[in-house]
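Proteins fold reproducibly. Look at a concrete instance:
___
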Amino acid sequence: MKHTGKIVVAVLMGMAFAGALFAQDGRRGWGRQPSPPPAVATAPAETVTISGPLQLVNGRIAVVQDGKTYYVGQLGRLVGFIEGLREGAQVTLMGNALPYPPGTDSYRLRITTMTLNGKVYDGLDGGRDSLPVRERAVPPHWRSRRN
């Protein structure tokens, strides 16, 4: 009976020691430090104005003009809130277009202004600056602290 208690204590201490070893991640400092995202080269956004009917392309809201497909995902949030905003609606969109995916005739359009049924909707970009999404996602303190 005396040996059973010693064995249990020894096993518990061994498990605690093993847990402490596996809890280390091998980095400097305490805890996990977030690492900045990898640098990705993005093409500069070009400002475009396009007109055409809204349609579904590959399951996404898009406008096709001159053989180029402009995906406008922001409009999905507004469907049901703006009268007449649905598939087939004739719209004029202005915003910044980025290749999506790069090297194709498809673009992701970040809309700043939309005209629908003669009514102009402005400020649809949420007041965000013109930085690419990946640049904006990096907190400022990460930009200044490079190891």
Q: What stands out?
A: DSSP finds three helices and seven strands in the chain.
